[in-house]
């Protein structure tokens, strides 16, 4: 959107003349919708940054466009505002409204009769501010997508811990659905732990996996194969009766992979296979030692 030089000059002069009053009123109006979620000092600082971005569009060059060659500083200021508010949990509407509020403030100034030029140039100002608001909204959306992607990755890592059960024995307790993205995280974390600990046995416990279909089984088998390539023997535990029936019905073959009903059974197998002598305590249960 092109803005003629005369309109830019009049708007710039108006904003410069009434800078203090406009910023003060802008902070007051914005504070009503934010309900104390920002301190007055923080809100004042950000209003000044948006104000500077607007002046930059008016005074920065011949095109008068945010996406133009002279709009870099204005875009940077608005982008930083959007990313900061996205990180703090503000809504996209609250973020964009911080920019749009200046129209209400300047309109009030024009109605006070301080300048005969304001009514004629208000539409031009509105178009400029709308462009800034849309840029802010777009940047906010991209920032939120990035934040959500990072949080999803962190949740995946937290939901797939690899724990050391004994010297040379590690376990991956899986809980919930095992999709491709999570299977990749499981494999990477397990292989890295095998390298870090030098463990020779890895237990993949699927007690918390609600159902095993062909895709889930393939993910588990790929993890086992990858661990074997690292020189570790894998044991699958948590094979409940329902899962056993499903595996048989689907014709899934685990081959020579050791499977156990419980994590305790799998640990006992791994310890015995690694040469640990287990002594059963009197009166202990099946796994008591």
Radius of gyration: 31 Å
Strand % is 5-15%
**What composes the largest sheet?**
5 strands, mixed
Span between N and C termini? 79 Å
Unreliable stretches: none
Strand order of the largest sheet: 1-2-3-4-5
Contiguous helical run count: 10
What's the order of the H and E elements? HHHHHHEEHEHEHEH
Shape label: rod-shaped
Short recap of the structure:
The protein has 289 residues and is of the alpha/beta class. Helices cover 63% and strands 9% of the residues. The longest helix is centred in the middle third of the chain and has 41 residues, at 118-158.
How is this structure best described in words?
This protein is an alpha/beta fold and 289 residues long. It has 10 helices and 5 strands. The protein has helices at 5-17, 19-34, 40-59, 72-87, 92-111, 118-158, 180-197, 214-229, 241-250, 263-273, and strands at residues 163-166, 169-175, 201-208, 233-237, 258-260. The chain has a 5-stranded mixed sheet, with helices on both faces. Helix 1 crosses helix 6, helix 4 (72-87) packs across helix 6 and helix 7 packs parallel to helix 8. The longest helix has 41 residues, at 118-158. The protein is rod-shaped. The model has no long low-confidence stretch (mean pLDDT 83).
């Amino acid at each position: 959107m092109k803005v003629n030089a005369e309109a830019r000059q009049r708007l710039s002069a108006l904003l410069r003349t009434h800078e203090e009053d406009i910023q003060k009123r802008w902070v007051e109006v914005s504070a009503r919708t934010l309900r104390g979620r920002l301190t007055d000092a923080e809100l004042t600082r950000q209003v000044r940054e948006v104000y500077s971005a607007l002046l930059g569009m008016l005074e920065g060059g011949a095109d008068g466009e945010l996406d133009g060659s002279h709009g870099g500083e204005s875009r940077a200021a608005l982008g930083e505002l959007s990313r900061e508010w996205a990180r703090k949990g503000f809504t996209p509407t609250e973020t964009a409204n911080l920019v749009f509020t200046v129209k209400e403030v300047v309109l009030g100034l024009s109605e006070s009769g301080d300048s005969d030029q304001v009514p004629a140039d208000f539409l031009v100002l509105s178009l400029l501010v709308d462009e800034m608001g849309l840029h802010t909204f777009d940047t906010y959306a991209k920032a939120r997508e990035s934040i959500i992607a990072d949080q999803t990755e962190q949740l995946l890592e937290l939901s797939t811990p690899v724990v050391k059960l004994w010297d040379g024995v590690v376990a991956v307790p899986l809980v919930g659905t095992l999709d491709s993205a999570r299977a990749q995280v499981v494999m990477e974390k397990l292989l890295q732990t095998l390298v870090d600990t030098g463990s020779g046995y890895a237990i993949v416990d699927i007690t918390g996996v609600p159902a095993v279909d062909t895709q889930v089984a393939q993910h588990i088998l790929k993890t086992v194969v990858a661990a074997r390539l690292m020189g570790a023997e894998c044991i699958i535990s948590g094979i409940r009766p329902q899962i056993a029936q499903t595996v048989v019905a689907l014709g899934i073959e685990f081959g020579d992979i050791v499977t156990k009903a419980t994590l305790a059974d799998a640990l006992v197998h791994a310890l015995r296979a690694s040469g640990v002598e287990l002594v059963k305590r009197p009166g202990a249960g099946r796994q008591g030692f």
